[in-house]
Amino acid sequence: MSKRRRAQSSDGRGEIVESMADAEDKHEKPDLRGDRRNIAILLFLYVLQGIPIGLIAAVPMLLQNRGASYKQQAEFSFAYWPFSIKLLWAPIVDSLYVRRFGRRKSWLVPVQYLLGGFMLLLSAHVDRWLGGDGVDPNVPLLTLLFFVLNFLAATQDIAVDGWALTMLKRCNVGYASTCNSVGQTAGYFLGYVVFIALESKDFCNSYLRDVPADVGMVTLPRFLWFWGIIFIVATTLVAVFKKENDIADAHTDARYKEEHELNIHESYKVLWDMVNKRPVQILAAILLTVKVTFAASDGVTSLKLIDAGVPKEKLALLAIPVIPLQLILPIIVGKYTNGPRPMDLYLRAIPWRIALATVATLIAYATPYMISGGEVPVYYYVLLIVSYGCYQVFLYSMFVAAMAFFAKISDPAVGGTYMTFLNTLCNLGGNWPNTVVLWLVDVLTWKKCTTQPENTCLSKEDQQDCTKSTGKCEIVFDGYYLEAIVCVVYGIIWLLVVRKWIRHLQNLPTRAWMVVSPAAKNKLR
Predict the structure, then answer these.
(1) Contact partners, residue 413, CB within 8 Å, separation at least 6
(2) Are the beta carbons of 502 and 300 closer than 8 angstroms?
(3) What are the residue ranges in the chain where pLDDT is below 70?
(4) Phi, psi (5° rounding) for residue 486?
(5) Axis-axis angle for helices 36-65, 175-188 (nearest 10)
(6) Which end of the chain is more exposed for a tag (fewer CB within 10 A), N or C?
(7) Considering the entire predicted model, what is its pTM?
(8) SS3 of 411, please?
(9) Sign of CA dihedral 400, 406, 409, 412
(10) Separation of alpha carbons 206 and 113, rounded Å
């Protein structure tokens, strides 16, 4: 969440309001002297932040292997929501603190201790709550605990984002976003890809062990315990040895020494003023509905591949060759979104993303036939990587175009709050459709017991009766494919109807998006 104020000159006023810096500072060249250790600390803090995010992404795969229903997967998907709604408490984190301890450390230290404590708590009981071996998973409790874990990670993100602006010299503040993206990606990789691989006995027996074993090299309790200890130790070191910028050093004059922030009342008032702007209301409707088009593909397809027999660890490892692409794409796409009409690229990317979402559905449909016999052929993995890589190109095209548009329209007097508000809408627009689509899979799917024709396997009791009769609940009609068709048709209609509104918003003058009056802006200087 950047607190820097963004310059806007397209409305002809020529007024530039930047927080915590004078206009002439914006052309300073980076100078890492005195900041190398600070950059390393920021990078490490963002890596820690990515660990719980990755773990939360891994849990649905574990639940799927333990027989969780899609309704239960939908229930657990609420654990993803805190990063999408952190704007609701971000003003509190920015405004309330103990000055003597430090503005950012007042939140960072206790939050990271709580993160470590929650991981240690989960390590003691999570195996029992995940279920398996005939025991149903305790999804409500898992959802609550991982929601809290993600809530704490989101709060840590608010504190670290704010601290980055005063920890680094003015000329190096741009490195904060690099630390964020690289660190969070690395943490996610450790918490998701590395954990899923090491948790799999098949992967460990095939590639890492000389003598096969019945379990993976790492279990979820051990993984949580290890990172819980790391969080507690790292937080103690930061609390004791890392000071905020309340002491002088050789580079004090090059750092931001004063933060011009809104208080709680002013922050929430600005949010209310944003909501009441007619262009913002139209943009909110667009952001909250566009990703319904891709919900079936984004939210369900990977779970369907696991159901079809694709090993979860192999599916997770497919992310490795795509990571360089994810790091490079924003840079490449950014060249096409720096002009006055970034949403043109957004509109051009949607049809391609719809087409590739359809390809993903077709791959899911063909998977049982392509891996018959239990062996997954190499060409299948190549097909997945190519299709997923192409999908990422257009996903990032939409993402970078939207971010460029947000930067273009955000009121520079409250740029950080404005950008975070729009990002919140963007994230919510992805979360709620995925939750709904996951929940509807079971509702729309028809099953039938092979030995009891009248048994439709709707409830756990029906499924147990079918199993007792040596039968099997087979899918007669898979609701996922109905959802995929509906989402694609919806997306085509949505694009035809909403395209003109996106162009209308892009043609509006910058002043149509302003929420702070010129007189109030002078007070924020």
Answers:
(1) 5, 17, 516, 520, 521, 524
(2) no
(3) 1-32, 34, 170-174, 177, 245-262, 338, 374, 412-416, 517-525
(4) -60, -45
(5) 30
(6) C
(7) 0.79
(8) coil
(9) negative
(10) 37
